[in-house]
Amino acid sequence: MLDSYFKITERGSTVAREIRGGFVTFFTMAYIVALNPLIIGLAKDADGKFLGGGDAPNLAAVAAMTALMAGVLTILMGVVGNYPLALATGLGLNTFVAVGIASKMSWADAMGLVVMEGIIITILVLTGFRTAVFKAVPAQLKIAISVGIGLFIALIGLVDAGFVRKTGGGPVPVTLGDNGTLVGWPIIVFAFGLFLMIILMVKKVKGALLIGIASATVLAIFIESAFKIGPNFNGATGAVNPKGWGLNVPAVPTDIIGKPDFGLFGQFNLLGSFDRISLVAGILFIFTLMLSDFFDTVGTVTAIGYEANLVDSEGNIPNNDRILLVDSLAAVAGGVGSISSNTSYIESAAGVGEGARTGLASVVTGVLFLLTTFLAPLVAVIPYEAATPALVIVGFLMMTQIKKIDWEDFGIAIPAFLTIILMPFTYNISVGIGAGFISHVVIRIVQGRRKDVHPLLLLVSGLFVIYFLASPINAWIG
After folding, report:
1. Are 321 and 83 in contact (CB under 8 A)?
2. pLDDT computed for residue 268 by the predictor
3. CB atoms within 10 A of CB 146
4. Contact between residue 87 and residue 342 where contact means Cβ atoms under 8 Å apart
5. DSSP state letters, 367-412
6. Going by C-beta distance under 8 Å and a sequence separation of 6 or more, which residues neighbour residue 83?
7. Which residue from 73, 75, 89 is spatially nearest to 31, judged by alpha carbons?
8. Which of 247, 337, 361, 477 has the CB geometry, 3.0–4.6 Å to 21, for a possible disulfide?
C-alpha cells in the first residue's frame, strides 16, 4: 500500500531509505523548535507585550506550537504533495515579523498580516498563477537556483557550527572560527561528524548522514560531560564564550516527556493592524512577506527536485501544484498558530541526500515533530555542531549540478552566476533569485531576444525591482 501510494519503487527508493531520509531531515532542522522561541518569543510588540499578550515570555508555548505546526504541515506535504519536503516556521520571515512588523502593532495584528499573506499566496496557487510562474523560469536558471541554495546551506552549516563567524569589524565580514583561529571542542565534534560522513559516503555505507549525526551527538555528550563547556552565549548573563556550543548544549536529558501548551493557537486579528498603520504600509509589509515566501519556496522545491532527480527535461516538478498549495496553506497556518509564516525548508535536502525520494520521508519527519511537542528535551540533546555537517555534505551534492549550465550564453551564465553567489553572500534565497531574473530579462532585451523571455518572467522581474527598492519607496511615502 505504501509503495503504491507514494510511488516508492517507481522513484527508485525503498521504505528503509525513506525512513532514514525522514530522520535525517528532522535532525537537521529540529533546531527551529528551540530557535523560534528565542526569535519571536523574546520580542515585544508595540504595546510592550510578549507573544500571547503576557508581560513575561512563554517560550514553552512557542516551542510546542512550532513543533505542532511543523509536524502537521510536513505530514500534509507528504500525503498530499508526495514530495520529500519538510515545513516549519521560516527563518528570516520570523525575524522580519518580530522586528519589522510586531514592533509597529500588537502580536495579534502582526499574525493577522501573516494570515492575509498566506491567503493571497493560496489564491495565486488556486488560480494557477504560482505554478505558471514556476514554469516560466528557464530550466538552466532553475539549476542555478539549486546550485546557489547548495552553497547557501553549506554556508549555513559552517556558520551554525562556528567554523565560519562574523568578524568584529573591518573590511572582511566573516573569518575562520574565532578571529581566524579554530578553537574549542565543538569544532572538533563538527570536524569529526563531517569526516565520518565523508568516509561513510566514499565507502557507500547506507545511512551515512544519519550515522554521522548520531555519532557526533554521542561524542558531544561525552565531551560536555567531561569538560563542562557550556553555551557560546549565556542569555541570562550576556557572557560570550567563543569555545562554547551553539544553540543546544548536549546532555542526557533528565526529563523526557513534558505536557505541551497550545494556547497560542488562534491568537490573530485579521484586519486589526490597519488601526495602527496606514493601508500603504500594511500592503508593503504583506508584499515583502509574500515575495520572500513565494520565491524561497520556488527555489527550495526546485533544488530538492534536482537533487532527488524528480524533474523533467523542462525542470518541472511532479505534483507541483499540490506542493505549492500545501506550502501556501502553511503560511496561513503559521499566522493562525501565532508562530509566524511556515514555509518549506531547504534542510530537506539532507534527507534527499540520504536517499529520500517520496512523501513518506515527509510523513516520518512530521511524526517526529509531533512527538517533539511531548519530547522537547530530546531535541535539545543534538547540538548544531553534530547536525550541521550534513548540510555541508548536501551543499556539495547540489553543487555538482553546475555542469548543466551553459556558460557560453551570457543571457544564462551571468544571471546564473549572480543567482549562485548572491544567495550565500546575502544570506537570502529571494535576493539571489531576484537578481538572476532581473539580469536575465535585461540581457535578453539587450541581445534583441525579448521574445525568449516569458511574459510572466517580465512581470515577476518588475515585482522584484519593487522588492529591492522597498526601503526608499517606504521612505518616500512616509
Report:
1. no
2. 94
3. 29
4. yes
5. HHHHHHTT-HHHHTTS-HHHHTHHHHHHHHHHHGGGGGS-TT-HHH
6. 77, 301, 304, 310, 317, 318, 319, 323, 358, 359, 362
7. 89
8. 361
**Which residues 6+ apart lie within 8 Å of 135 measured at CB?**
314, 316
Q: 181 pairs with which residues across the strands?
A: 178
410-426 burial by CB neighbour count: b if 16+ within 10 A, else e? Answer: ebbbbbbbbbbebbbbe
**Assigned C-alpha cell, 4:** 503504491
State the first-to-last Cα distance of the chain, in angstroms, to the nearest integer: 59
Cell of 157: 552549516
**pLDDT per position as a tens digit, 333-374:** 999 999 999 999 988 999 999 999 999 999 999 999 999 998
Q: Is 146 in a helix, a strand, or coil?
A: helix
Radius of gyration of the chain (CA): 22
Distance of CA 164 to CAs 150, 178, 475, Å?
A: 17, 8, 35
In the chain, where the domains are located: 2-251+275-477
Report strand pairing: 87-89 vs 164-166.
unpaired
Q: What are phi and psi for residue 138, nearest 5 degrees?
A: -55, 145
Residue 89 near residue 32, CB atoms below 8 Å:
yes
Instruction: Give the 3-state secondary structure of residue 472.
Output: helix
How would you classify the pairing of strands 164-166 and 174-176?
A: antiparallel
421-435 tens-digit pLDDT: 999 999 887 789 899
pLDDT digit string (tens) for 63-122? 899 999 999 999 999 999 999 999 999 877 887 788 778 988 999 999 999 999 999 999
In the numeric block, the cell 500500500 is attached to 1
**Under a CB-based contact definition with an 8 Å cutoff, are residues 69 and 272 in contact?**
no
Alpha-carbon distance of 234 to 244, in angstroms, equals 10
Q: Which three cell numbers stand for residue 141?
A: 536558471
Residue with cell 565560519: 164
The dihedral through the CA atoms of 153, 155, 161, 166 has a sign that is negative
Global confidence as pTM = 0.76
